[in-house]
Write a structure and sequence with these properties.
Layout: H1 5-11, E1 17-25, E2 28-36, H2 42-57, H3 60-67, E3 82-88, E4 91-100, E5 103-111
Length: 116
């Protein structure tokens, strides 16, 4: 007998996934939070990481420069976020990472039991 996706989801207990976001200054943890993936998209997560990085690493003028749109001038982008993904033991691992000077931010996709 073949089960529908709905029936499979009901029979298999699918674990909620969370983004564990950690901000470091050098090796010292200065901020940490967990966000349920149901409540934030990857685009929203990247915006959150950019905002967090701007708070800790950029001056007010550098933040303003990122939003200026001057004709024929390339906008300045101080924050670059890299995304990596891989399958390890048939589980998807996704990581977002950014670093400016002594501040770095990591966001890892985890299940509830993996959160520390």
């Amino acid at each position: 007998m073949r089960l529908s996706t709905y029936q499979l989801n009901r029979t298999m207990k699918i674990e909620d996934k969370y983004w564990e976001v950690v901000c470091y200054r050098h090796l010292k943890e200065i901020y940490k939070t967990s966000i349920n993936t149901k409540h934030i998209s990857e685009k929203g997560l990247k915006t959150f990481i950019e905002t967090l990085m701007a708070k800790y690493a950029l001056s007010d003028d550098e933040i303003v420069e990122q939003y200026l749109r001057i004709p024929f001038k390339k906008p300045k982008k101080y924050i670059h976020i890299s995304r990596t993904s891989e399958f390890i033991h048939e589980q998807l691992h996704i990581t977002f990472m950014t670093q400016i000077a002594d501040i770095s931010i990591l966001a890892n996709l985890k299940t509830k039991k993996d959160l520390t």
